[in-house]
C-alpha cells in the first residue's frame, strides 16, 4: 500500500491540486467582480434593475452547482459558446459564486449605518463617490471573513468538476486508484490531507480577520 504514495503518484496529485488552486483563484477574482456589482446594484435599489438582479441571484442560488457545470460545458456549445474544460469549470463556479458573494456584499453594505451615506452626501459627495469612498471600505472589512469562508467552499466545490474530467485533485486521484483498487484508501487519505491543509490555512486567516474585526 505504501506504493500508492510513490513520488509519481504524489506529483500527479499535486498537479491536480495546482489545477484546483488555479480554477479557484480565477473563479474568485471573476466572482468578486460580478458579485460586487450585483450586490451593489441590489443595495442601491436601482429601479427595475435591482429587482431583475435579485430574481437572477435567487434563481442561481437555488440551483445545484453540478447543473450549472453541465450547462456551461454541454449546453453553451449548443448556442455557439464553446469553452474548454478549464474555462467551463471557471464559468460555472463564477456564476454560482457570484450569486453567493452578491448576498455577502449586499449584507455588508446594509450593515453600514445609513448615517454614513447621509454624511457623505451632505458633505458634497455624489452617491457614487459616497459609496466607493465611504461605505464600501467600511463594509469590505466586515465582509472579508465571509468572503474567505466562501472561497473555502469554492475550493471544495471544484471537486464537482470531475464530472467533466477537469484534471483537478479529485480527478487525478480517481485515475490513480482506478489503475489499482488497493490505492483507494491511500488516495482518499491523500486527498483529505491536501484539501484540509489548503482549507484550514484559509480558515485560520478568516478567523484572524474575524477576531481583528471585533478587536478594532
Automatic annotation (TrEMBL):
PROSITE patterns: ABC_TM1
Key words, A-Z: Cell membrane, Membrane, Transmembrane, Transmembrane helix, Transport
Pfam families reported in the protein's UniProt record: BPD_transp_1 (PF00528)
Subcellular location per the Swiss-Prot or TrEMBL entry: Cell membrane
Coiled-coil residues: none
Domain (ABC transmembrane type-1): residue spans on this chain: 17-206
Predominant location: membrane
Membrane topology designation: Multi-pass membrane protein
Residues annotated as transmembrane: 16-38, 59-79, 85-105, 184-209
InterPro entries xref list: AA_ABC_transptr_permease_3TM (IPR010065), ArtM/GltK/GlnP/TcyL/YhdX-like (IPR043429), MetI-like (IPR000515), MetI-like_sf (IPR035906)
Family note: Belongs to the binding-protein-dependent transport system permease family.
Entry-linked PANTHER family: INNER MEMBRANE AMINO-ACID ABC TRANSPORTER PERMEASE PROTEIN YHDY, MEMBRANE COMPONENT OF AMINO ACID ABC TRANSPORTER
Alphabetical list of NCBIfam families matching this protein: HEQRo_perm_3TM
Protein name according to UniProt: Amino acid ABC transporter permease
